[in-house]
Amino acid sequence: DQQVKQNSPSLSVQEGRISILNCDYTNSMFDYFLWYKKYPAEGPTFLISISSIKDKNEDGRFTVFLNKSAKHLSLHIVPSQPGDSAVYFCAASDRGSTLGRLYFGRGTQLTVWP
Amino acid sequence: DTGVSQDPRHKITKRGQNVTFRCDPISEHNRLYWYRQTLGQGPEFLTYFQNEAQLEKSRLLSDRFSAERPKGSFSTLEIQRTEQGDSAMYLCASRGGGGQYFGPGTRLTVT
Known about the structure:
The structure holds two protein chains of two kinds. By secondary structure, chain A is mostly beta strands. Chain A has strands at 4-5, 10-14, 19-25, 32-38, 45-51, 56-59, 62-67, 72-77, 86-93, 103-104, 108-113.
């Protein structure tokens, strides 16, 4: 039961352009969403998060947009840089739950070429 | 910067052997999680500790798996009688504020 879905396994973008990574979720109880970046043989690194009370959160080159009615979020990276090449995971949680576990998508491999 | 650390980083073992992994969370975080990641998948939740109490276990955690956090600080994950299907990256995360911060993981290969 995949409650968080990343339907694009890969994305290729030229350096300097915008990268848009998409994520859909099915559980309406999710109220906190995160994006992680992962290099091979390393653990996921936290990038940016958004609470369900907001529809946008920005941190430098990274912006996350949340559309609750569509149960969809996206991560925008502008401008994209070759060092951004990695696997990006979308994750969600229900902060009302005492557990607080994260549900992850399968990831999108971003490649930024010069 | 004392982030989450895990030891060992890599472990190769023969089927049927027991293995134990250690996780040291960020010191002020009282919540600790174990996840497992296999190729082509995102991390999947295994178990959760709040301080020393293990509050939740996934059905992925068969009876060959056991986890402890004896003093509410570091945690260990033991796999008994390893199987080839246990080959994966085992990730530990600790929680502070809203986010979970992951360690570098332990890559287990069962031959």
